[in-house]
Amino acid sequence: MQTRDLDYFIAVAKNLSFTGAAKQFQVTQPTITLAIKRLESQFDTPLFLRDKKQNSIQLSTAGSQLLVHANRIKQDIAEAQREIDNLKKEVIPLGLPPIIATYFFPKYVPKLIQKNLLGQINPVTIGSDKLLDELVSGTINIALIAHAPAITQSNRWGEIGQKILLAKHSFSIIDNVQQPLISKTGPLLPEEFLNLPLIALDDNFIHATVMNYLFEQGDFNKKIIFRTSEIQSLKKMVEAGAGIGLLTDLAIDNDDPLIQHSILFDAPLSFNVYLAYRSSHILSPIEKKIVSIFVN
After folding, report:
1. Model pLDDT, residue 52
2. Of 44, 109, 117, 205, most Cβ neighbours within 10 A?
3. In order of start, what are the domains of the chain with their CATH numbers?
């Protein structure tokens, strides 16, 4: 079977037209017709039903089934091409969400330099939820991902075969030191802070999912007055007294002029850092070395 025949078949199925497929690939219509005939001969069944009166075609049952597999085959081939291209370059795309890239990854840099591996890493800095999509699709093979086990996040989390827990951190409520909006000291229940003005990280952060989860647990007056994609911006606005914020303690430095409250909740809320890669992906020698830096 020629993969080009599958390309032509997918195009005919999409356009329901041999002529349309020929225009799409800038080939003659007989080229498309021969490709479909080769596939029909190989599978020994018609892939299209032809209505000569209406001068139209539609997929047969067998054709519909082949279309599912043809699309999957094309995705697998594209994924294999990306992986092989990366092997040739000896540059490994590594998924790094913003907080992990800033506050977690740097502690491994000395070891990566020592092993001459840092220059072979191409960081892909996007949110954990988008990184899940990139992993499952095969756009990247390895990532450090944040996950909150108590909360149902993207259903793609279960599609990743290998997940190695590297660290576990808490979520905290941060407040202004000079004029705090929260009078209580110590741990907080959700009802003790969710009605206050909130400065929130945007949807690129797992914090947005956690915040939405907390709001769903009761009848709270949602007061998110500002969303930001910058961790430092969140801290500075809280420091200025604009509102309180939700932040993992991984991103809170000892010298930050902020009050930090832990959260009391039935299901412990934790910011877990995992090294993740697809079970179908065979780690290259360089990838194995990089993985070993994080897990050993």
Report:
1. 78
2. 205
3. 3-75 (1.10.10.10), 88-167+272-295 (3.40.190.10), 169-270 (3.40.190.10)
